């Protein structure tokens, strides 16, 4: 099973937009009462844990921390609506935060209020995945039927504790003076960004659909249902990004060793292969690096043969009850992609082959025997010239 992506929302309509994209969501109760719903994104392999955190950075921070501790996710997304701060943004456009400003920090002095901003940057890897998705347009497949694809913008988002609905208020002037590069304004991004920062720089991405212009017309745009349209656009982009982050995160599933141990493991792996009726045993005190004991027949060198063997193991695991039917069907689909890519044997198809095997690894990773067998298949695939 692939690592979970946590998705948090502030409003019920935001929650419902994400929930509608989940296949067979099931309830997960936290001991302290928080309710999550867990499911896979329809037509995708990504596993999502969804929660409603309410408005404000404080509650968002607390429940983001709770979700991180509960699920150890590959990434955390905050998805919802926001007010656009620049005229080049259209209603319905999607803004992906490159960094989040907590703009309420400051000090009050005799000559006025001085800004003391805090800011958190989106991780480089997550930003790169998001930009790739925006460029190739793959995310638009999840838009409502007939919906014209909105523009996707990358830039700072300002997060505070009040709803801004004016261009001329003191609050609006403060934002314009100190945070004039912010594309949008909202109320939760700083909380989740701080939670991610405190958890070994967990990738956190804030994705917002523009539902108003923060200019005094919010009641009009709300009546025209721009919140529903904007959040549907943001949810579609978030679904594609969640899938990309989940696949990327599978490479980081294993516990991280110290630098010294990693170096030794890379330099030194002992492999004993028993031929015929021979048997090999190991007696050792401390072993640095990897030790693998196999029979000669257990180490296929042909990738096509390895895929066939793994398919047999997959069928056996299903028959033994180690895999449920949905996981088995999804795994078979990735194997079919791998088979087709192997037959094409082009640089692009080899990349497709490796990606399919990584997705497959996420599906079966909780079945140790299958995961071990697939590791050898992936090694063969990565060795293709």
Automatic annotation (TrEMBL):
<dbReference type="InterPro" id="IPR000845">
    <property type="entry name" value="Nucleoside_phosphorylase_d"/>
</dbReference>
<protein>
    <submittedName>
        <fullName>5'-methylthioadenosine/S-adenosylhomocysteine nucleosidase</fullName>
    </submittedName>
</protein>
<dbReference type="Pfam" id="PF01048">
    <property type="entry name" value="PNP_UDP_1"/>
</dbReference>
<feature type="domain" description="Nucleoside phosphorylase">
    <location>
        <begin position="4"/>
        <end position="241"/>
    </location>
</feature>
<dbReference type="InterPro" id="IPR035994">
    <property type="entry name" value="Nucleoside_phosphorylase_sf"/>
</dbReference>
């Amino acid at each position: 099973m692939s690592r979970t992506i946590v998705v948090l929302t502030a409003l019920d309509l935001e929650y419902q937009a994400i929930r509608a994209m989940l296949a067979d969501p099931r309830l997960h109760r936290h001991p302290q009462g928080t309710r999550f719903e867990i499911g896979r994104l329809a037509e995708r392999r990504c596993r999502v844990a969804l929660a409603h955190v309410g408005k404000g950075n404080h509650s968002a921070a607390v429940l983001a921390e709770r979700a991180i501790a509960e699920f150890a996710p590959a990434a955390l997304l905050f998805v919802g609506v926001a007010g656009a701060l620049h005229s080049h943004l259209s209603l319905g456009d999607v803004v992906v935060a490159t960094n989040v400003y907590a703009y309420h920090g400051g000090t009050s002095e005799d000559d006025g209020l001085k800004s003391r901003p805090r800011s958190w940057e989106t991780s480089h890897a997550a930003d790169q995945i998001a930009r790739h998705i925006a460029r190739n347009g793959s995310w638009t497949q999840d838009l409502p039927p007939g919906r014209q694809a909105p523009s996707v913008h990358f830039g700072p988002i300002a997060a505070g504790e009040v709803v801004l609905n004016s261009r001329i208020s003191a609050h609006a002037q403060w934002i314009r003076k100190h945070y004039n590069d912010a594309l949008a304004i909202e109320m939760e991004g700083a909380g989740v960004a701080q939670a991610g920062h405190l958890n070994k720089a967990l990738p956190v991405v804030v994705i917002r659909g523009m539902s108003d212009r923060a200019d005094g017309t919010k009641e009009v745009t709300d009546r025209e249902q721009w919140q529903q349209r904007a959040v549907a656009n943001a949810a579609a982009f978030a679904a594609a990004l969640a899938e990309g982050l989940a696949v990327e995160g599978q490479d980081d599933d294993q516990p991280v060793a110290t630098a010294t141990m990693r170096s030794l493991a890379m330099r030194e792996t002992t492999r004993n292969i028993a031929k015929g009726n021979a048997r090999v045993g190991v007696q050792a005190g401390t072993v640095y690096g990897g030790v693998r004991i196999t029979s000669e027949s257990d180490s296929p060198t042909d990738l096509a043969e390895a895929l066939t063997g793994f398919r047999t193991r997959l069928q056996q695991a299903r028959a033994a009850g180690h895999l449920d039917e949905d996981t088995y069907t999804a795994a078979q689909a990735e194997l079919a992609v791998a088979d087709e890519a192997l037959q094409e044997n082009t640089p692009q198809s080899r990349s497709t082959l490796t990606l399919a095997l990584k997705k497959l690894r996420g599906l079966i990773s909780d079945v140790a025997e299958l995961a071990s067998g697939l590791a050898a298949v992936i090694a063969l695939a990565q060795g293709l010239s």
